[in-house]
Amino acid sequence: MKIGLAVIFFIWMLTRSLYKKATWVQLTIVGLQIFSVLLLIELSITHYFPEFLEAKWLIGVFFATVFILAAAKEHYLSKSEQQEIK
User: Are 52 and 45 in contact (CB under 8 A)?
Assistant: First the structure.
């Protein structure tokens, strides 16, 4: 049950767009995306893949970095598009 809710939350957070949103909204969405992937990793590794317990933090850091880089790209693109309009 917990893993199913974590998967739904993770998928829902992946569908959130950062494009043309306020900075605080972008940071909130990225924080929730990182939380959702860390929760999913925690639940799936502890329940289904206990042999990867020692690498759990490394996997979490990798996915958190991916979300942060994607957010930085979206922030840059929305800022540069706003400057072109002006």
Answer: yes
The token pair at 56 is 């759990």
- For the chain, the 3-state helix, strand and coil shares in percent, each to the nearest 5, are 85, 0, 15
Cβ of 13: how many Cβ atoms within 10 Å? 19
Assigned token pair, 69: 């880089």
CA distance 43 to 8: 13
Question: What type of residue is 55?
Answer: A
Size of the chain, expressed as the number of residues it contains: 86
The top-scoring range by mean pLDDT among 1-5, 37-41, 76-80 is: 37-41
pLDDT tens digits for range 59-80: 999 989 998 998 888 888 877 7
- What region, left, alpha or beta, does residue 21 occupy, with left being phi > 0 and alpha being psi -120 to 50 degrees? beta
Answer whether 31's CB lies under 8 Å from 64's CB.
Answer: no
